[in-house]
Amino acid sequence: MKTLVTDISSLVTVSGTGNQYKTGEQMNEIGEIKDGAFLFSDKIEWVGTAHRAAQMIERQEMWPDKIIHLKGKTVLPGFVDSHTHFVFAGDRTDEFARRLRGASYQEIAEAGGGIKATVKATRNASEDELYENALMLALSAMRYGTCTMEIKSGYGLSFESEMKQLRVIKRLRETLPVEIKTTFIGAHDFPPEFENNRDAYVDLICNKMLPYVAENNLADYCDAFVDEGYYTVEQGRRIFETALGLGLKIRMHADELADVNAAALAAEVGALSADHLLFVSDTNIDKLREAGTVACLLPGTAYFIRMPYAPARNIIDKGAIVALASDCNPGSSFTENMQVVLSLAAINMNMTAEEAITAATLNAAYSLELADKVGSIEVGKSANFIILDVASYAGLFYHFGVNHIDEVRINGRKI
Ligand SMILES: [Zn+2]
Questions:
Q1: For residue 65, how far is its CA from the centre of ligand 1 (angstroms)?
Q2: Ligand 1 center to 59 CA (angstroms)
Q3: What is the mean pLDDT of residues 201-215?
Q4: For position 338, what pLDDT does the model report?
Q5: Among residues 244, 191, 182, 246, which one has the least CA distance to residue 219?
Q6: Where in the chain is the domain with CATH 3.20.20.140?
């Protein structure tokens, strides 16, 4: 079954013309075709103009089984959300309301809130409960245009509950049509029982958790929160060297709360991505660029916890590879909506609409090692695309805070 989508007012291909990512000024080249058309099955089979498609049909060079007309609509590659924490239990709404009334993070933590509350609830939750919660978030993300996602563990912080989270992600991979990459982040925080002996918890991660994860194929990647008050660069390096030795590649929470040189560690260990980077230094941006590590920016977090935004302009101008992701989690960025993330990136990090689109599609796919399959509308790639109810892609940014999705397609199938 081949379908031709034609008369598309704004077809944004994000064509990489053979490249798996874009940097600097290339990020603005999103390959828009006005009055565009493309033919797809489960893969993209042909891309061009509506005029050319009509010609080919007339000359019997193309035989679509079905034709869809999209006048007044925009088509983009499906969003790739390369950083989420969908698997958790508990409800922190009250805590959030207290924060709005002026309670400090410290006060909330002392009252039993914060990440510790999520850890407690996640440990106590059954696998089915965690699965149901995560499924709702993943389905909602898809309704906002996410066609590929990464999901992390990190709210169990014990052998049993971390593995429970990873099994939940495995189940999501088996049931959902989206492609999901799994990241083990036992080093998301320190569990209360190891608060006074943090290195012993690092031992547990390196000696027991990571070997089990690798042996049972429970994750693609290993992550750690290397930041002020969390994991030190030394502890991070130990975890990453162990993971690399077991065949797991690295992603990383880096320099979100302070510049602790975490980005330099990401470059040193050849991480696929260094995420957050609110306080990254100029020197370390250069190191990320040289290492080819993707700088994954999460503007939802800066917004939600009222922090300064990552220096996106500087990172792009220095030529590092920039991606955007939601960081969907119950404490510091509770949204699974990539349209909001793009809007925040444009307005509050001074990215152009084109840069934001490139960062949330092709570049994010590259950071998940999937840029040969998704992230752009190009012949041979999966037919993952979204139809938006706006006549030009800029409309997605202009009319903000509403869901512009008319239709989501993954591998050609309507979701
Ligand atoms: Zn995160």
A1: 44
A2: 52
A3: 98
A4: 98
A5: 182
A6: 79-367
In 3D space, the residue among 195, 10, 176 whose CA is nearest the CA of residue 84 turns out to be 176
C-alpha distances (whole Å) from 326 to each of 217, 278, 355 are 25, 15, 16
The Å distance, Cα 83 to ligand 1 centre, comes to 6
Distance (Å) of CA 137 to CA 17, 89, 403: 33, 12, 15
pTM over 0.90: yes
**What pLDDT does 11 receive?**
98
Give the pair of three-digit tokens for residue 309: 């935004």
Domain(s) labelled CATH 2.30.40.10 in the chain stretch across 3-77+377-414
Determine how many CB atoms are found less than 10 A away from the CB of residue 11. 28
Please tell me the distance from the alpha carbon of residue 55 to that of residue 49, in angstroms, as a whole number: 10
Architecture of the domain defined by 3-77+377-414: Roll (2.30)
| Rounded distance from Cα 252 to ligand 1 centre (Å) | 9
- For residue range 111-126, list pLDDT tens digits in order: 888 888 999 999 999 9
If you measure from the C-alpha of residue 327 to the centroid of ligand 1, how many angstroms do you get, rounded to a whole number? 5
The number of beta carbons lying within 10 Å of the beta carbon of residue 390 is 18
Residue in 131, 125, 181 with CA at minimum distance from that of residue 156: 125
Question: Rounded to the nearest whole angstrom, what is the distance from the C-alpha of residue 405 to the centroid of ligand 1?
Answer: 26
- How far, in Å, is the centroid of ligand 1 from the Cα of 20? 24
How far apart are the C-alpha atoms of 30 and 194, rounded to whole Å? 48
Q: For the structural domain made of 79-367, what CATH number should be given?
A: 3.20.20.140
DSSP 8-state code for residue 208:
I
Maximum Cα–Cα distance for the chain, whole Å?
75
Q: If you count them, how many residues does the chain have?
A: 415
What spacing in Å lies between the alpha carbon of 380 and ligand 1's midpoint?
A: 32
pLDDT at residue number 16: 77
- Kind of pairing between the strands at 385-388 and 74-77: antiparallel
